[in-house]
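ARCHIVE CARD
SHELF: 3
SLOT: left
DATA:
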Amino acid sequence: MAGLISKVGAFLKSPEGKRVTQQVQRAAKDPATRRKLTEAVSQFRGKGGRGGAPR
């Protein structure tokens, strides 16, 4: 497990990792992206969306 954590850390410090981090941060600030994510989480939890048995 420690090997995986160190690999992730090394990736985040690399130029590509920094670029991906910035891209994710920009997407997180976008209201449309946040709304889509909120809707997806609600559907996954069964609190909306289409059909499915209530919990």
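SLOT: right
DATA:
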Amino acid sequence: MTPPRRVTALAASFLPLLFAPAFADSDVLWKIVHDRCAVQTAPCLSVNTAEHYAMLKDLNGIAQFLLIPTDKITGIESPDLLNPATHNFFADAWAEQGDVDSRLPHAIPRDGLSLAVNAQQARSQNQLHIHIDCLSTDARAVLKADADRVGTDWAPLPDAIAGHQFTAIRVKGETLGDFNPFLALAKTLKDPAKDMGGHNLVVVGANFAEGPGFIVLTDVAKPGMGGEDVQDHSCAIEH
């Protein structure tokens, strides 16, 4: 689907910033959401004022979208994410799957959709954003093989994905409901306020023997390795 002309034109005005070196302006996403989307929606596709987030088509990939809070939340290290009153942005991101599907010839199967947040040292922008996109074919194969070995307590995933040795947990249900991956990760850490920023966090849809659910993945980021590594922005699984 071709993006609406008004969105394309406005988004184009940010091209020099978005493709500039990461150190050039780490607040580009915040400026887009705060200065433009919160005022007139475009270049975002939508703004959910009740849940405090906007949906923006990423310039990278054919169907990748970013869920970006409309409040200033720097990233996974933000103390705001440890507040149970903060909206469950991962649950919101899963509910926005239709935006991704609209750019593809077929809807992504449940176990082909992924939501990823990069660790503080593995990102270029200082505004929280969840990458919503296709899972890579390799990652999908690994998780399909390991799905029924993932339990309801955090444990190492048997196989590596894109060089990551993830720890994983199973979540049951069609939606994430009240399960907040940020809070679930924080509960495993000795000092969440200090340690959250070093972690990647990924949510992938799953089909377990007993029904639908999710596999949540996390690891301590190595240099240059983000949670986004499990995704395929060309969406090969749909071609």
